[in-house]
């Protein structure tokens, strides 16, 4: 073993991200009492680094600094260094990300924190180069100054840390005051949110802003619901505005599916585009992005009936089932941007490689179609894309492209693959279960429903500590079953966060509406009850991110901001409304109303920051639709019931909850209720379609 080969305490961890740093010369600790006790005993500040396994700039900072003997020596001498996987410990990440945003005005990963031994931050940053450059102070300089200040100006640093902790605590309290005329106010806020998005919309390339450009599925989710709101509540007023909401979503999804952000050879979407045109992605692929985008494409297919949107959703799921699904049926977390130390290398092609693989005639045709040139469109190589494709994409062209894609995929599979982060996160699995179940329901495809079922079975077996009690048995405080947040290498770890409960409940509701299997709605109901016991803020309303019996950090975060993943409170509000309508438990909707109220003032001030919450507000405060399919035997649906369910599934009904009700004294029919008033039962499928439309 040479002098640069080290191991540290991360060597015994399961996280792929932590294991990536296990051979650094830095004496890394995992987040544990041992590290903080050592910091107190040695009177040293904490150097906390938070990231995740497929984070490109995390890799850069590791190569530049954490593998550097000199930087490691400074860290080991003057600090206690702690490394955290944000995907395993989102509670720790949330707390310190809020600190970073409060102190610097921005945030991101890698997240770099210097804190007192009692966990209070006094310095925050994201990526830091080793030396001074990019107009940034280098890590060497920062470590030296932090050590000097700790030794010579301790009182000032501790005052800063104390003030930041107080500021973070004050940020958690929502406003629970009631507002009059909620329905009208929801419409007004929705209008302002739409106008904000419209102003930020890129009319040429879709998406919002310029660059880097994120897919922002929460914005697409809102726009489709805003479209439905204007159509149903405002009775076709201002149809130009109504149409533009859908146009914005279509323009974005069309441009993304043509761009390099979409993997035209292996399928699936990368995390974001570094340019306005969606050409050059940040090549990592995240499970949560693909789940949410799959749902977006499915919903636009429902709205427009255009088959290409369904095709893209199917391709996303083909990628997930092929590359991101464990043998037991759970879903892996992410794929890295880098392979062989180079970002994007796995995905790039030269024109000659295409010619060699497909032959001169087919290769030239494919290369011309997908913008693969001798010069290259990215650092001398090529990212396949259809941004400027002039080909008439008819069935023959599609068949040709698919034949070539499969041949190139087989060749690409022989390359060195990017790292696959194969840990299984309950929260992200919940999102993909929702996507799979939605696809099965909307596309009438059983394999997607089977995949969702298998993933739920995995979570019940490996990540739910004990089976829930029967429906008739009340939940007792002394035997609360609990979710775990992460599974890898035979180990379930970390008590579940609010995200784990919320996103899994979302997936279970979607799976119920895809199958009408009562098992799933009962499990969703049960987990929602547990969630409210573990995370509810009795004083201010809303849900904390960490459970009542979780580790005590310097702050107990409560998440409302809807970003790359919608906030736990936003999705919980939507879930609880749907659960209430399906199960008849009114207390669920009462809790949803309280969550909405706790967020109302900030939603009013800045609606696009809580845009998923606005979807929940629109749902509840404009009444929504409750649809009951009344049948003689829920386990054996007749053809009429199946036809009625298909008619419902073929329509985009974002403010509807659908359930099966057994009724032995009448023929199959459908009851539609709006504004807490039910219309007469509908027994004819054509009448049902008319009523839904």
Describe the fold and architecture.
By secondary structure, the chain is an alpha+beta fold. The longest helix is centred in the middle third of the chain and has 20 residues, at 239-258. The model is unreliable at 172-180 and 235-242 (pLDDT under 50).
Q: What is the topology, as strand order, of the major beta sheet?
A: 2-1-3-4
Count every beta strand, where a strand is a DSSP E run of 2 or more residues: 19
Report the uncertain regions: 172-180, 235-242
Summarize the amount of helix as a percent range: 40-55%
Mean pLDDT: 89
Estimate what percentage of residues fall within beta strands: 5-15%
Outline of the structure:
With 693 residues, the protein is an alpha+beta fold. Helices cover 50% and strands 10% of the residues. It has a four-stranded mixed sheet with strand order 2-1-3-4, with helices on both faces. The protein has a four-stranded mixed sheet with strand order 17-16-18-19. It has a three-stranded antiparallel sheet with strand order 5-6-7, with no helix packed on it.
Feature tags:
693 residues; Glutaredoxin; four-stranded mixed sheet; 24 helices; globular
List the topology elements:
Blueprint: H1 16-20, H2 33-42, E1 46-51, H3 56-66, H4 69-78, E2 80-85, H5 90-104, E3 111-115, E4 121-125, H6 139-152, H7 154-170, H8 182-200, E5 213-214, H9 217-232, H10 239-258, E6 272-273, E7 281-282, E8 285-286, H11 287-304, H12 307-323, E9 334-335, E10 338-339, E11 342-343, H13 351-358, H14 360-369, H15 395-412, E12 420-421, E13 424-425, H16 426-443, H17 446-462, E14 484-488, E15 491-495, H18 498-515, H19 518-535, H20 568-583, H21 586-605, H22 611-621, E16 625-631, H23 639-649, E17 656-662, E18 669-674, E19 677-678, H24 685-692
Parallel strand pairs: 1-2, 16-17
Antiparallel strand pairs: 1-3, 3-4, 5-6, 6-7, 8-9, 9-12, 10-11, 13-14, 14-15, 16-18, 18-19
Helix pairs in contact: 4-6, 8-9, 8-22, 9-10, 9-11, 9-22, 10-11, 11-12, 11-16, 12-16, 13-14, 16-17, 16-18, 17-18, 18-19, 18-20, 19-20, 20-21, 20-22, 21-22, 23-24
